[in-house]
Design brief:
The complex is a heterodimer of chains A (481) and B (507). Chain A has 481 residues and is an all-alpha fold. Chain A is 76% helix and 1% strand. Chain A has one domain (2-478). In chain B, 61% of the residues are buried. Classes of the chains: A mainly alpha (481), B mainly alpha (507). The interface between A and B is large, with 40 and 35 residues.
Chain lengths: 481, 507
């Protein structure tokens, strides 16, 4: 029974997903499905509340599952991101004739997978979580069945995702071969004894690093990102760009910082270099984009680099883990928000918004433009927004770990990023439409959820202490001792 | 509103002004009324602060301190001393004048947005001069950025987008490296759990900053402040930003934003990194003198009136940095006075150039001429501010530059050229300033007036009302500088003592 209670939030989300599918099939074909979103959100809220009430810290399922402050924290992150992703979707789904019930169910199943990653204490649970998180997202990318870009996105994402999963699994096999166990604690103990002395450990480490880097879209394993993000339906992109990335970093924290922590000196420097390359390449390529959706796709690669920099600074202790968690939340809010703002421009016959199509938006929809601008300023990392505080929290452990060069690269990258983010603001506020202004899509649910999250971006930027203190607690159990 | 937290009140007032602004968002008149009332109240509040300021004390006064980010060791800490108190009053005055002038018809489009940007800008500007925690300072420092970005980009001239992006990217490039420096200071300030960014605490602990560390972190700070000032060779954003900015934006940009750089040197860089200061001193002195001479020469050849005033700012800011880095009491006081004087005089010049442009729609000096015949009142104002800008004795510009030059002449470094070299070179800048400003005045005001300008009216009562307070300050500070020096001097002495390694009681 305690086993069941330990994973209660995951069970609730699974049940809600099934329920949504069932209700969806029972509804008549042409029925209004907007309220399915509310059912989904209600279910997610139940899961959110059930966490702290039911589960107790400790291991369950014979050590396959670990419930600690990190698990609790991550559950909240994934559920909040899922709620946000569901709330911005209904209008788009109705306009593009995408089956709403399936969409919500897929988001929920993927969320269960992400939550499973956060509670894994074993390679098998971890792999289960990663696959459960990834596979629904492949389907999500291809939800727009008659759109060839959507098909391209799904296929690319699926093939490269499957490839990376197999790399990861192969790495797990080597790891098992080297250590003789699949549980993180004993793995940590075993690699602490042997170090990287022998070839097989090196192969295992390389495969695992590459596999997880694929999932997090680290350069040079990022190639799937722009096409997958660009082609997928916009609300799906918003979800895809944050939740799988957050989940990938949960996996990295659990496995690399936890299980393979003793090898930190080896993967730490690799991650530091990868982080520098990732943020620089992401930003430089984003500079050249004129399509905002594609630009945001590349910029999300750059943000992977910032988060990875905090991982590379694992030596700084809990503040590094806390930086990863804080940045993941900040990134989730602002990036999901920025992609969701593109829903305003979901105009017939256009593929995402080009910069030109944003012209004059601030006059047509002042509040929408303001929220978009807040997300962009936060992504740039200018105070008083959560994006700024998140960067500070990342730079601190990076400097603390002695990676001064990486901190300087982060700062210079932020200037690059400022150019293309603020160029969007230029088009929103400083250019006028020359032709008759295209209609802007404005829905209440979209407006409200964007408004709330923009407010959260500012409030967390001014008062980040509670969240950061919580992130510090959540990071504490990561290092296995 | 208990008077014990007057500094917090100063930061909150512009934010409170946003509430009625949002309520009456669609009314242009209401927006201006809200703006004028808010900035006027803010100005009065800053006068209350000035009245409560105890002249003669060197340390921080009216200090407020509360934990803000306890798990990171960051405090919400505010305070004023002789260096910042007058800058705050100048800021609130210039903001009020800018808003009043804009309400006269200079800004007609998207007024509510304009007012919102201006109020946020004021929060950032006042906060920069009040913050005693480096983290808080950085937040206010950056808070000034986005509103000014919008002010130039939305209400600016032809090439406004280019100018505003250039302004933002230059500023960010400097300030983000400073952020890395700030976090490095944070880490160097103590063991984990005991770290701080509170200035008084950091000064106590600065002995633990290694020499090499000071060299690099000072460089990061100097880059941010140097770009903001701006110092040569990172000044190139300034002419573009000034030329494209609307008049109110130019006034604030020249009057206040540039001061954040010089103030940052005095407040943070010098006291925290005495060795770093000494290390970079020769470079900074050299760049200051280059700025004075180069700024003057480039001003002389400008065809565009607004650009001329912008480049003259580069020269004037050269005096500020020269005064700061000779590490001499007279130089430091002169630099602080020069910041105030430049804010008042150049702010006024931008105001007058803006008024002139509104009427004639010409900024090229060649297109103007003979205005003195048509606009006697305008000519008097313009003439006085021009003379103040070139440092005529009896007006405020003279006092600051004179003190800076005194400091420069007595500059005596262990190696390299001393004050007897730098002083005369800087003095050439004063002469050049007289040349280009008087020449400009002659070309704009005298000669034959163009037919098209004959019917244009002289200054309106509103425009006079905007310029008169600045004129009064120009004269008063020129004739009676002593009260101002008395406020500034003790705090500057403390900073100089800290920068030269002397032992001085903290607080």
């Amino acid at each position: 029974m305690s086993n069941v209670l330990a994973v209660m939030p995951e069970i609730v989300v699974t049940v809600v997903a099934t329920l949504v599918l069932l209700v969806d099939t029972m509804l008549p074909r042409r029925a209004e499905r907007g309220w399915l979103a509310l059912l989904t959100v209600a279910g997610l809220l139940v899961a959110l509340v059930s966490g702290p009430f039911v589960t107790v810290p400790g291991t369950a399922f014979n050590g396959f599952v670990q419930i600690d402050t990190f698990t609790t924290f991550s559950r909240v992150v994934f559920i909040v991101l899922a709620i946000f992703a569901v709330l911005v979707a209904p209008g788009y789904l109705a306009r593009h004739d995408i089956p709403a019930g399936e969409y919500y169910a897929i988001v929920l199943f993927s969320t269960v997978g992400a939550m499973t990653i956060a509670l894994s204490n074993d390679l098998i649970t971890l792999f289960l979580g990663i696959e459960l998180m990834s596979i629904p997202v492949y389907a999500l990318a291809g939800m727009q069945r008659h759109d060839r870009y959507s098909n391209e996105a799904a296929l690319k994402y699926f093939l490269l995702g499957a490839f990376s999963s197999s790399l990861l699994l192969y790495g797990f096999a080597w790891l098992y071969g080297v250590t003789g166990t699949t549980e993180f604690g004993p793995i940590a103990a075993a690699v602490a004894r042997t170090g990287l002395a022998d070839g097989p450990t090196l192969i295992a480490l390389a495969l695992v690093t590459a596999g997880l880097s694929f999932k997090a879209a680290v350069v040079p394993f990022h190639q799937w990102t722009p096409d997958a993000y660009d082609g997928a339906p916009t609300p799906a992109t918003a979800f895809m760009s944050v939740a799988p990335k957050a989940a990938a970093f949960a996996a990295i924290l659990r496995l690399m910082v936890g299980g393979l922590g003793p090898l930190g000196t080896d993967w730490g420097i690799a991650f530091a270099v990868l982080a520098a390359v990732t943020m620089t390449l992401g930003n430089v390529v984003a500079l050249a984009q004129t399509n905002v959706k594609r630009m945001l796709a590349y910029s999300s690669v750059a943000h992977t680099g910032y988060i990875l920099a905090a991982v590379a600074a694992y030596r700084a202790g809990d503040s590094a883990g806390a930086a990863v968690l804080f940045y993941v939340i900040a990134y989730g809010l602002m990036n999901l928000g920025a992609f969701a703002c593109l829903l305003y421009f979901d105009i017939e016959g256009t593929r995402g918004a080009t910069l030109m199509e944003l012209n004059g938006f601030a006059r047509q929809e002042p509040l929408g433009a303001l929220t978009f601008a807040i997300f962009l300023i936060s992504l740039t990392g200018i105070p008083p927004t959560v994006g700024f505080v998140a960067k500070v929290f990342v730079i601190q452990p990076v400097l603390d770990a002695g990676l001064t060069w990486l901190a300087v690269i982060i700062a210079l990258n932020a200037v690059l990023a400022a150019f293309y983010y603020l160029r969007v603001v230029v088009h929103l506020y400083m250019h006028e439409t020359d032709e008759r202004s295209a209609p802007i899509i404005s829905e209440r649910m979209l407006n409200v959820s964007l408004g709330v999250s923009a407010l959260a971006v500012v409030v967390l930027g001014v008062l980040p202490d509670g969240l950061y203190a919580w992130a510090l607690q959540a990071a504490a159990p990561l290092v296995l001792r | 509103m208990s008077p014990s937290n007057i500094l917090t009140i100063l930061i909150v007032i512009p934010l409170l002004g946003l509430i009625p602004l949002v309520v009456f968002w669609r009314s242009r008149r209401a927006a201006y009324q809200v703006a004028i009332v808010t900035t006027a109240v803010e100005f009065v509040a800053s006068l209350v602060m000035l009245a409560r300021f105890k002249v003669g004390e060197a340390g921080f006064q009216m200090v407020e301190s509360a934990p803000w980010l306890p798990s990171f060791g960051i405090r919400y800490e505010l305070g004023v001393d002789g260096i910042s108190v007058l800058l705050v009053v100048m800021t609130t005055l210039l903001t009020l004048i800018s808003v009043v002038y804009s309400s006269g018809g200079a800004i007609k489009e998207r007024v509510s947005e304009f007012v919102a940007a201006f109020l946020l800008l004021e929060v950032g500007m006042v906060g920069v001069f009040l913050a005693l925690d480096l983290f808080l300072f950085y937040i206010f420092f950056e808070l000034m950025l986005i509103p000014m970005y919008l002010i130039i980009g939305i209400w600016g001239g032809q090439r406004r987008v280019y100018a505003t992006l250039k302004f933002v990217l230059f500023t960010l490039a400097g300030s983000l490296l400073m952020l890395v420096g700030i976090i490095a200071v944070y880490i160097a300030s103590g063991a984990p759990g005991d770290r701080t960014l509170s200035l008084p605490l950091l000064i106590e602990r600065r002995a633990s900053f290694a020499l090499e560390f000071q060299v690099w972190v000072f460089l990061a700070f100097a880059l941010a402040f140097g770009i903001k000032m701006p110092m040569v060779p990172v000044h190139t954003w300034l002419p573009d930003a000034h030329v494209e900015a609307p008049t109110a934006g130019s006034i604030i940009l020249a009057g206040v934003l540039l001061k954040a750089g010089g103030y940052g040197f005095l407040r943070f860089a010098l006291p925290l990194f005495p060795y770093g200061t000494q290390f970079w001193l020769p470079v900074l002195i050299f760049l200051s003198v280059v700025a004075i001479v180069y700024g003057a020469i480039v001003s002389a050849v400008q065809k565009d009136l607004k650009k001329l005033v912008a480049y003259s700012s580069v020269a004037h800011m050269g005096f500020v940095t020269l005064g700061i880095f000779v590490l001499d009491l007279q130089g430091g006081v002169g630099a602080t006075l020069q910041m105030l004087n430049h804010g008042i005089v150049t702010g006024a010049l931008f105001l007058l150039v803006g008024i002139q442009y509104e009427k004639t729609h010409r900024r090229l000096i060649a297109d103007l001429g003979g205005l003195a015949n048509r606009w006697p009142l305008y000519t008097v104002f313009f003439g006085v501010f021009t003379l103040a800008s070139l440092g005529l004795p009896g007006l405020n510009g003279f006092v600051g530059e004179f003190l800076v030059l005194l400091g420069a002449f007595s500059f005596n470094p262990p190696t390299g050229p001393g004050g007897l070299f730098w002083g005369p070179v800087a003095a050439i800048g004063v002469i050049l300033a007289a040349v280009y400003l008087l020449w400009m005045f002659q070309r704009v005001m005298f000669g034959t007036v163009r037919e098209a300008y004959r019917a244009l009216p002289d200054l309106s009562p509103l425009e006079v009302a905007c310029a008169v307070p600045l004129l009064a300050l120009t004269v008063v500070m020129g004739v009676f500088p002593q009260p101002f020096i008395a406020i500034i001097e003790p705090s500057v002495a403390r900073v100089i003592a800290l920068a030269t390694g002397g032992a001085v009681a903290i607080r």
